[in-house]
């Protein structure tokens, strides 16, 4: 029976509150609590004495009860046995507690939570009875008594309303609204805010509900109440802030915070009242949680789709129930492109909305009998019954097309994409996990070929994946054993043929693989997170090297390529500055090269790091300019100093009018923005003279100078110093 | 007939119209010429109770403790009677018996419970149980049982039943010695050197959705879910008519189940007021409680009976039952009328392997074995002796 315990608290509350004096409140509380959890015995420890002992018969084991109040979990009752005991504080400051003990079995978390609530409710009732008695004793005004009694009655009524809503399983927002509204009303015009922690590692607190006009309370107070597990009262300007922790199945889940205007003196009562409401929130959330838990165990809460576990279960069943191998079962592994950018720039809520919309479109791409699932993050899957490869590929194409259409999220049009891998099971006895893993591999391969593709799994992909894994191991070893080295390629000022700087280029000659191109190993290094260490090594090594050369060539600059993965590393700016400081290289001599696609896919990431570095004098270059999405907005937003025209624009041996027009446009754009322009991939004299004619300031390429080992570099640089304006450093390329 | 001289148990029933004769007949059958230590008498209020007890005493002898209650029907191994008498008797050196009686002060009902618990005083038998018979119309049956429990504690189990008066709801009687009292509690502490087993089961199930008792005092329910309670009950039963009609037709008893850890704590609602739109039963329904309407078909009620007996016997440490006292709810009887009663008796006979049993249909049952709660409704409580 789910959450039976949550049904009982207000019944108990009503009984305890009906008591006219402390003794009967205690007796009533002990007996109800004992009966409700089917315990044999109960008692209250208050101010060092035992009250309301129930179920012990003639001899009450007082010493043992004090031990339970101090935390002892077992209570020995003569002629009955050893009972599981639980002690529930009556308030936050004192050692007073409501104790119950049961023979049958230990108390479960839901029972403990309810009993904690019962202890608090009793403490509240006792304090208000004592206040009332004191008032009587002092012959205080009749009026005040009436108010206090009235408030208690209103509290009971208000809690009954909420309890009714909880037991009828009214929608959770409605219940929580009744709680904050009820508390705000009872506390006489207070602003009551419910702050709940979100899932995820950082457990952010968000305002779930607010009743009243005042601003949302500071998160720090809510967090303090959660951390201490107790109600907090703090003066706040002219009034008071009270924060009561909210628990879900015993774990801290948030805080109920009240902001009360003016008037000191009733904080203890108000604190207890807020605590009673917070208890109701805990109960409502716990109850909702038990209902949800069953569903959540198998469904993704954001999209409502089956989760990975359920998907695999269904897939297993389908695979096991196939009669013949003739009806193939297909699995689509769907990975969203650019989802992370949406999540990072528009926030988690927008990201979640987008996922829900994607889920809906996915469902529209398959038959009703097929299964779609969210595997986690931005990964989805579909299980297609009786689907041969061609049909599954067609569904994959449909998915890609559907996801490519713009989504409307948070009032904006969002463009994302999807890459799809397909795996088909023909063998009987194939494992569901294996099939899904194959589809994953196909998706990976599809994504590598560029976004928005559909690929069917082939065995070679498996070999490729294994190779990637071994490549990762080799890369780790390469870094450790110093297998990497650097070559340098000068950037030539086209006006006078002199070297303005050098670009550091990484090379890997693996003892087992031979020479491996950066094009092949850099993506792997990025994928497995090795790029940050490799990038740092490049920066440190090249900075030391260039600092050395600058003794002879004082104006020589250094260009270093930076991966997007380095850029988003939280210590990126520090790492760069440390490397330069160690080398003794001024920051103004360094230009970091970023590819256009990195800047486009992660528009906001690393922006702050780049601004910090720019502020310290480091320059920024856009590599492969013109190959990306040609959004020029970032040229205005980012602190860019240099554009490198991609070699694709000047690849032809003889440049056409169109090529020249494009290059001219870029050069003119750079001039308008006050940026340096570097033409990459100059391979012959005709290209060189054409670019010089267009006003392009700098050039790089085999015709000018090949990438060179560092030991030969000083000679090359010296040559350039005395060369004619033609500025050819590497005569081999012109041979 | 039992022949074990160390501990014996016997039952008898009578439908004789003459009260003294009925008492004597039933007692004679139960006692079978042995020396009785305790005689349990369950009889209809329609009898001349003084005459009936006189008849019992003639057979029981001067030293036997006589206890019992008026009923809403009597049961025994031979079957169910209405307006009759059912008697159980026990004796032998293995049993010890002490009794107490107390008048119920309506302002302090638990004191009477605590007073009869004194019957256990100085009793040091290996196995003990307090058997209670109390007036079922004082309005606070729970308090009486709590009074007994608070006095004796968890080390001794409690069983018994609340006296009824057929279906009059006017005055019930409790038997103590040669007298029939009203507004009283009678307690018989039974000690034994053989094991004692207690079974509790009902066989009702919830009808969703639950309701909150938004306004109630004692056994009176004014509002359910903020609506007049009678309106809610009539609507949930699809009944169009007055309270009197509603409670008079077969469905007469409305069981309400209070949410509890291992099931429901059942209350029986047996009357309503057309003017005030309220309903009430014999036991208090706490304001704020979550309650379900309960339903029970014949089979589940019969299963409940069998389960109660099986549970009681199972606690006899492997020994066969010497005999059983049964406290069955009048509400169950209403649910089993028209042939079901005979089936219930048959189910009990089977579950008890034909061990003799006697008991009555009550206004509420008493049983506390585990936990602290000792009051029940629509339940069959069985006390098996080995």
Ordered list of secondary-structure elements with their pairings:
The complex is a heterodimer of chains A (735) and B (386).
Chain A: H1 9-17, H2 22-36, E1 41-46, E2 49-54, H3 62-69, E3 74-77, E4 81-89, E5 97-102, H4 109-137, H5 142-167, H6 172-186, E6 191-197, E7 205-211, H7 219-228, E8 232-236, E9 239-248, E10 251-260, H8 267-296, H9 308-321, E11 329-337, H10 339-346, H11 348-365, E12 371-376, E13 379-384, H12 389-404, E14 407-409, E15 412-414, E16 417-425, H13 432-448, E17 454-456, H14 459-481, E18 484-493, E19 499-510, E20 514-516, H15 518-527, H16 531-549, E21 557-561, H17 564-567, H18 572-583, E22 590-595, H19 596-601, H20 607-615, E23 619-625, H21 633-637, E24 642-645, H22 657-673, E25 676-679, H23 685-694, E26 698-699, H24 713-722
Parallel strand pairs in A: 16-17, 19-21, 21-22, 22-23, 23-24, 24-25, 25-26
Antiparallel strand pairs in A: 1-2, 1-5, 3-4, 4-5, 6-7, 6-10, 8-9, 9-10, 11-13, 11-16, 12-13, 14-15, 18-19, 18-26, 19-20
Helix pairs in contact in A: 1-2, 1-4, 1-5, 2-4, 4-5, 4-8, 5-6, 5-8, 6-8, 10-11, 11-12, 16-18, 18-20
Chain B: E1 8-14, H1 19-31, E2 38-43, H2 49-60, E3 65-70, E4 74-76, E5 79-81, E6 85-91, E7 95-103, H3 109-117, E8 127-135, H4 141-152, E9 158-163, E10 174-176, E11 179-181, E12 184-192, E13 196-201, E14 205-217, E15 220-224, E16 227-228, H5 229-236, H6 243-248, E17 254-260, E18 263-273, E19 278-281, E20 290-295, H7 298-314, E21 323-329, H8 330-336, H9 340-351, E22 357-362, E23 365-368, E24 375-376, E25 380-385
Parallel strand pairs in B: 2-3, 8-9, 21-22
Antiparallel strand pairs in B: 1-6, 2-6, 3-10, 4-5, 4-22, 7-12, 8-12, 9-23, 10-11, 13-25, 14-15, 14-20, 15-16, 15-19, 17-18, 17-20, 18-19, 21-25, 23-24
Helix pairs in contact in B: 1-2, 3-4, 7-9
